[in-house]
Amino acid sequence: MTLQPGLPRYGEAGDFPPRVWQAVEESRRRDFPLACIPEVGRLLQFCTGLHGMERICELGTAYGVGAAWIEAGMAPGATLLTVEVDPERARAARAMFADNPAIEVMAGDWSLALERRPFDMLFSDGGPKRAPGDPEKLLPLLHDGALVVLDDYTPGTLDDPSRDVWLDNTAYEAVELILAADASVILARKH
Fold first, then answer.
1. 130 in helix, strand or coil?
2. What does the pLDDT read at residue 7?
3. Among residues 176, 171, 169, which one has the least CA distance to residue 152?
């Protein structure tokens, strides 16, 4: 499986929310190419705007591109907790979102989110998502019926254990969505 670099897909400033563009520019400045791609970002923006998405969590903030897409879709009163393992990236993201009290950036391991559970939606970009047992690790973070978004999949990959841990897991209802010729996501809902 290949992680698809997100930054080349952004091209120049254009049809993106301003904070998304700010995060893309920060990621470029710091030579961090694995940002959330626009196709995934637009899906995150849509999902966070769905009814009932009040408490949202992201695992793996990096420089805030995914969090900026989530922010762009959040309903009034919704909150986002985003956790980044790298202290420098967490500091940069915290500074970017300092003007929005609905967004909290924590530096540390994904398990810090367990202190703030449960969530209505989880974007696991840098947390557990590919190994056997990972879906079970995330269960305590979620309300019943909560949505999980998992990116960085390549369509058409057969016999992929990182997909099967979600698609075959009885604790979730999961589907794979192809967003581009080279990018798909798994959406899972906790039973």
1. coil
2. 65
3. 176
> Please, how many CA atoms are within 13 Å of residue 154, restricted to the half-sphere of its CB?
10
Specify the residue for token string 């695992």: 59
pTM for the model stands at: 0.92
Average pLDDT rounded to a whole number, residues 147-160: 87
Strands laid side by side in the 172-180 sheet: 103-107, 79-84, 55-59, 119-124, 142-153, 183-190, 172-180
Rounded to an integer, what distance in angstroms lies between the CA atom of residue 176 and that of residue 49? 20
Q: Is the peptide bond before 118 cis (omega within 30 degrees of 0)?
A: yes
The mean pLDDT of 20-37, rounded to a whole number, is 90
Q: Domain range spanning residue 148?
A: 7-190
* 2 found inside a domain: no
Q: What's the token pair of residue 176?
A: 């794979």
Give the CATH number of the domain where residue 144 resides.
3.40.50.150
End-to-end Cα spacing for the chain: 28
Q: Residue 156: which residues within 8 A CB-CB, separation 6 or more?
A: none
Report whether pLDDT(2) > 60: no
Residue 139 has pLDDT above 60, yes or no: yes
Q: Which of 114, 66, 70, 105 is nearest to 85 (CA)?
A: 105
Looking at residue 4, what is its pLDDT? Answer: 41
Number of domains into which the chain is organized: 1
Contact present, 166 and 186 (Cβ < 8 Å) = yes
Mean pLDDT over each residue of the chain, to the nearest integer: 91
